[in-house]
Specification:
alpha+beta, Ubiquitin-like (UB roll), DNA polymerase, domain 1, five-stranded mixed β-sheet, binds FE2/S2 (inorganic) cluster
Length: about 160
């Protein structure tokens, strides 16, 4: 099988998998990046969201062949347990989640928003997360967490 070149969380690598394999399967089953979750598999829930060349995309609906050579960022690319990304810290601080299954996708969508707008309104945050479903109903805390992360990032930038 012809290997496909990708950049994942800053590392250039090649994956030997069928070109019609969904990117979500590649991440989880070929690369061991289990943070990106399988929910519906139908591009409906957003829990498989990753950044592809900086844009939030549902990885369950992206075939490996369509992401060749692209830069992919998963939740593992944001921070670590020891050094969480401000978004991850803010979600912890706000306790923004119950089961947590939706959160990797939500944090990725929020990162895409904050990468282009560090002072989003609550309506802009809600719009950016429109493709992400949380069945636990943590929506208000999630909105607060994104606002808190934006404030943290603004403070970091002004230091
Ligand atoms: S698993 Fe991809 S959108 Fe639901
Ligand atoms: S926290 Fe459970 S689905 Fe969002």
């Amino acid at each position: 099988m012809h290997p496909t070149a990708l950049i994942v969380n800053g590392s250039a690598l090649s994956v030997s998998a069928d070109p019609i394999t969904p990117l979500l399967d590649v991440l989880r089953n070929h690369l061991g990046l289990m943070g990106t979750k399988f929910g519906c598999g139908l591009e409906q829930c957003g829990c498989c969201m990753v950044l592809i060349d900086g844009r939030p995309e549902k990885s369950c609906g992206k075939l490996l062949s369509t992401v060749a050579g692209k830069e992919i960022v998963t939740i593992e690319g944001l921070g670590t347990r020891e050094r969480p990304h401000p978004l991850q810290q803010a979600f912890l601080d706000e306790q923004a989640g119950q089961c947590g299954y939706c959160l990797p996708g939500i944090v990725i969508s929020a990162k895409a928003l904050l990468d282009r707008n560090l002072s989003p309104s609550r309506a802009q945050i809600a719009a950016a997360l429109d493709d992400n479903i949380c069945r636990c109903g943590s929506h208000i805390r999630i909105l607060r967490a994104v606002e808190r992360a934006a404030a943290l990032l603004r403070a970091q930038g002004s230091r």
